[in-house]
Design goal:
Blueprint: H1 3-8, E1 15-20, H2 24-33, E2 42-47, H3 55-63, E3 68-73, H4 83-100, E4 108-112, H5 118-135, H6 138-148
Parallel strand pairs: 1-2, 1-3, 3-4
Length: 149
Amino acid sequence: MSENAAKHGDWRPKVLVITTELCSYPGIDTVGQMHLDYPAHFYPIRTFSPVLFPEEFYLRCFEQGFDAILIASCGTDCPYTGAYERTAARVDRVYQLMKERGIDTRRLRLTAICSVCTRAFLREVEQLSQVLEELGPVAQEMEGHRGEQ
């Protein structure tokens, strides 16, 4: 039995991956086309830009059972002027809201993944998976924080 299984039972994390239509989604799609694997508990969704999601969206994702969120953006190559900078500022605000709710900020990651960055995506998946093994379910953090108040 792995240490994770012993610590968290048969829990499997759920990770939302917010991808951009023009940059990161093609890169992530290429992972599948190349028959490279990443865990089935990573759920990608496509959007034009992650700046479209308000702060409350991320908090609701945690409340609804997502253990982590990976924002795979275009980075500074974003075709929408200022969108990456506004997304980064929004993520900073979400970090503050997460701290207020007792949610570890390592559960939310903003990264730039280009249309050919398959290895970068797989590296992000691996790193986030390791963090989640350490942290366990987000529900435990949120329940623990409610109990402390």
